[in-house]
Amino acid sequence: MNARADNEANESFEAVLRYIRDARGFDFTGYKRASLMRRVRHRMDQAGFSTFEEYLDTLQASPDEFSALFNTILINVTSFFRDPPAWDYVRDEVVPTLLAERRPNEAVRVWSAGCASGEEAYTLAMIFAEAMGVDDFRARVKIYATDVDEEALNEARAASYDAKAVEPVPAELLSRYFESVGGRYVFRKDLRRAVIFGRNDLVKDAPISRVDLLVCRNTLMYLNADTQRTVLGRLHFALAPRGVLFLGHAEMLLSHADRFTPLNLKYRIFHKVLTAGAQVDGIPAPCRSTLRPTRRGWRRSGISHSGPAPWRRSSSPAMTPSR
Ligand SMILES: C[S@@+](CC[C@H](N)C(=O)[O-])C[C@H]1O[C@@H](n2cnc3c(N)ncnc32)[C@H](O)[C@@H]1O
């Protein structure tokens, strides 16, 4: 393609994005252009279109085509315990510390943002129920699980998975937390009440508030640096003073040291940085965020990072793939 044809294609691609935003209320303009264009072209190939102009005409006439496109763009790939070593760390370090830092009856608020078909939210439910016991879990924990994709949310609410999907669930947890119904595995109904699904567009909707553990994995990486910055501002706002942010394996915060500080860089787990002067339970914020309770008083948390702070040295975009 020569430069002029390239420009024309880019302009007609932008027209498709503007149409989706203005007529359908979904704004993809903050998504990384190259991969977004690849996915739109992929859908066009499947549907037999070669130019963006032709495709725009069809989108305007056919709501079904819009939903096929939406499904191609919003990659819903997910799994239970995705990246097992990172979840082991959450189970062994993050959750016990989080619970130890709270009073015995204090509510615990968790948010799975970009939850797709729900596996991540139910993974969280199993980890907390194992850590606290089922009764305490039901009484204290709320897991908000959100996505922009209504179809994925409907699957998540149904909580019914095939044998392949539950393969990553350890056998003991599978028998404790799932009922077998007609060859499928359905997450326990009594515990499902603690998991609240809803539509939330991370790019434009108000966030959930006072969140203790915010899991936003494999979602921010589709957004461009500016949009990531905006969304990360919302995620920072969403977190409670002692809140923890858990990102995906291929996501890294490189230029947000003012808002997040690593607990474990390898597993992409960060602590909210409190603004100067903030106090939590009467203790100055910068100290409080790395302290944990023991019988003798407060001591430094075992999950603080060590060594130099590589995220401070880089001026790269907000998130980059891991090596
Ligand atoms: C690859 S899946 C990740 C699912 C899960 N978090 C995981 O790591 O396994 C990305 C999800 O982000 C959702 N998503 C994309 N853009 C979004 C937005 N602006 N707001 C909320 N969710 C979004 C998609 O619909 C999709 O379900």
Automatic annotation (TrEMBL):
Chain spans, region Disordered: 291-323
Domain CheR-type methyltransferase stretches: 1-270
PANTHER family, alphabetized: CHEMOTAXIS PROTEIN METHYLTRANSFERASE, CHEMOTAXIS PROTEIN METHYLTRANSFERASE 2
Keywords: Methyltransferase, S-adenosyl-L-methionine, Transferase
Pfam family, one: CheR
SMART domains tied to this protein: MeTrc
EC annotation from Swiss-Prot or TrEMBL: 2.1.1.80
Protein name, entry field: protein-glutamate O-methyltransferase
Polar residues bias: start-end ranges: 313-323
Superkingdom of the organism of origin: Bacteria
